[in-house]
Amino acid sequence: MREAVRVYQSLGATVHEVSLPHSKYAVATYYIIAPCEASSNLARYDGVHYGYRTDEKQMVAELEAERKSLEKAADNVGLGNSTTR
Predict the structure, then answer these.
(1) How far is CA 17 from CA 28, 36, 53, in A?
(2) What is the pTM of this model?
(3) Rounded Cα gap, residues 41 and 35, in angstroms
């Protein structure tokens, strides 16, 4: 640490000694704040807090079209020619 201070001073930096009387609480405070900050930052991306909105009628129409397509594809699977006539 002292070597780093000497390097900074040689480059023109001014170094002042400070007192940090509450530094013993730093790690505990970090472990409280970090998950809260991460949760807060990620909440805006989850699509639940702000809610994803879609056109319900369009979504229902798309799902119905997909269902019909799947039914049509499944109708002829595994059946012989006489069954599918």
Answers:
(1) 24, 32, 55
(2) 0.36
(3) 10
Cα–Cα distance between 64 and 56 in angstroms, integer? 12
Q: Which long-range contacts link 18-23 to residues 24+ away (Cβ below 8 Å)?
A: none
Half-sphere exposure of 82 (CA within 13 A, CB side): 0
| Amino acid at site 32 | I
Question: What pLDDT sits at residue 50?
Answer: 57
pLDDT digits (tens, 9 = 90+) for 40-65: 777 666 665 556 667 788 888 888 99
- CB atoms near residue 82 (< 10 Å): 6
Structure tokens at 59: 């979504």
How far is Cα 64 from Cα 68, in angstroms, rounded to an integer?
6
DSSP, collapsed to helix, strand or coil, labels residue 35 as: helix
Reply yes or no on whether the pLDDT at 28 is more than 60: yes
